[in-house]
Amino acid sequence: MMQCQYKHLINGQWESSETLGANINPSDLDDLVGNYAQGDQQQTINAIEAAKTAFQSWSCSPIQQRFDMLDAVGSEILARKDELAKLLAREEGKALSDALGEVIRAGQIFKFFAGECVRQTGDKLASTRQGMEVEVTREPVGVVGLITPWNFPIAIPAWKIAPALAYGNTVVFKPAELVPASAWALADIIHRAGAPAGVFNLVLGKGSIVGETLVNHLDVAAISFTGSEGTGRNIASKVVARMGKVQLEMGGKNPLVVLDDADLEVAAEVAVNGAFYATGQRCTASSRFIVTKGIHDRFVAAVVNKMGKLEVGHALDTNTKIGPVVDKKQLDNVCQYIRVGKDEGAKLAFGGEILQRKTKGFFLQPTLFTQANSSMRIAKEEIFGPVACVIKVADYEEALAVANDTVFGLSSGIVTTSLKYANHFKRHAHSGMVMVNAPTAGVDYHVPFGGRNGSSYGSREQGRYAAEFYTTVKTVYIAS
Ligand code: NDP
């Protein structure tokens, strides 16, 4: 019988399932990271019921208890960062240096929200009526269902779980099927840090079973989701229909504007980092370089030069800068977009080839198209891989218009030495996050994260803004 390494945590107990799934290393298809339990509808319901019961006491628990628990989780993540980074790189394919950065960030997020436990505030106001006082306080919303994607296997769960627990909610967490090991490791840490039974539950398995059950269950007061736009829309329609609270973080088609006055070295570095690190599998990745004509040719040459030096290989090899694509399905999808780009008439300036390495894996060259325009699919649709395109424009005004010509609006960037253009872009870029002379990807953990239009729905995640989603406001009138 197959051994199940990664089990569910339901009501404080580790539980397996009849059906197991295999977690395969995308850098080495012969490496089985482990077998994980695939939860069914009843196990998901059991987790929701446990969370509902636990909410009664956890929602009123002392803030010191919550602080101690979240602080301990953060401390253990940071103490075990190298081991957890290896596990993450092994199951997701992110280069070890990127994986380490992600694990550290997860630890810092738990530390930040430990602090938020003891910084919770309300307002006491004068009333408009004689002999009355008003108080405005925040209370937890209840059982929250957290549904996460594969591309940040520990940081995205951390930035949902930590605020949910800090503000007194109980959790049922469903990670993406492709990355159960990091999710299990995190659940194990939270469990041992003293989460009472039912306060934090992990149910591994398919979105169509575990995810759907969470989304449709009336006892799940709120769903926080990160993933693709299609799944997000589907989830929102169901949760809103039953009057639940919902928050979605979805895709991006993030522009990086490069102006004639940019420092060429800065522009090329920001572009390559933003587009190709983490194999381009970041919702904040730059996928459109919008470049004014005076610097265009020099910029393309500098980027291509840097791309040629990016080592593509096994995620655990310390020389590797770009790990594999996460799985066969995603690789096929990205390769299909490379074919589409060629068919649409864009020019392949670099890459586009599948690579063979010592181990069998999903290795793909970072890829750059030039001569693209906004009507091409490669410039409109999220590819979610190491592929970017260059759109040549006449001036800043055209660059801004092209940058904003998208259904998404997550992150956008500009590389310029002009304060005037930088300031104008900050104000007029239609995105939730704007970067000046910095990659569109790579953010701090203590400030809001999220986008506009097709990229996000609902209130922001992270930082103290997370309280908007994980609490509900109560207004109390007291007659004296
Ligand atoms: P998916 O939307 O396919 O999946 C995201 C999560 O939703 C997974 O846990 C998945 O489960 C689950 N899910 C799938 N179907 C359902 C359903 N019917 N009901 C409930 N849950 C469901 O995205 P990917 O995991 O493939 O991630 C890649 C996408 O996510 C990209 O498009 C990317 O842009 C976006 N993304 C956005 C981010 C942001 O912050 N804006 C961050 C990271 C990614 P399972 O896969 O296990 O079946």
User: How do the strands of the widest beta sheet line up side by side?
Assistant: 14-17-18-13-12-19-20
Task: Name the structural class.
Answer: alpha/beta
CATH fold-level label of the largest domain: Aldehyde Dehydrogenase, Chain A, domain 1
CATH architecture title of the largest domain = 3-Layer(aba) Sandwich
The tally of strands reads 22
Averaged pLDDT = 97
C-alpha end-to-end distance: 69 Å
Query: What proportion of the residues is helical, as a percent range?
Result: 25-40%
Main beta-sheet strand count, sense and barrel state = 7 strands, mixed
Coarse shape: globular
Query: Superfamily at the CATH H level of the largest domain?
Result: Aldehyde Dehydrogenase, Chain A, domain 1
Q: Which small-molecule species are bound to the chains here? A: NADPH dihydro-nicotinamide-adenine-dinucleotide phosphate
Q: Can you give a write-up of this model?
A:
The chain has 480 residues and is an alpha/beta fold. It folds into two domains: 5-250 and 446-479, Aldehyde Dehydrogenase, Chain A, domain 1, CATH 3.40.605.10; 254-436, Aldehyde Dehydrogenase, Chain A, domain 2 (3-Layer(aba) Sandwich), CATH 3.40.309. 39% of the residues lie in helices and 23% in strands. The chain contains 15 helices and 22 strands. It has helices at residues 41-58, 63-79, 81-92, 96-117, 155-166, 180-192, 207-216, 229-241, 264-276, 293-308, 328-344, 377-380, 396-403, 419-428, 467-470; strands spanning 8-10, 13-15, 20-25, 28-37, 123-126, 132-140, 143-147, 170-174, 200-202, 220-226, 245-249, 254-258, 286-292, 347-350, 354-355, 363-364, 367-370, 387-393, 411-415, 433-436, 456-457, 471-479. A seven-stranded mixed sheet has the order 14-17-18-13-12-19-20, with helices on both faces. Strands 9-8-7-10-11-21 form a six-stranded mixed sheet, sandwiched between helices. A three-stranded antiparallel sheet has the order 5-6-22. α2 (63-79) runs antiparallel to α4 and α9 packs across α10 (293-308). The longest helix has 22 residues, at 96-117. NADPH dihydro-nicotinamide-adenine-dinucleotide phosphate binds at residues 147-151, 174, 176-177, 206-208, 211-212, 215, 226-228, 231, 234-235, 249-251, 283, 382, 384, 410, 455.
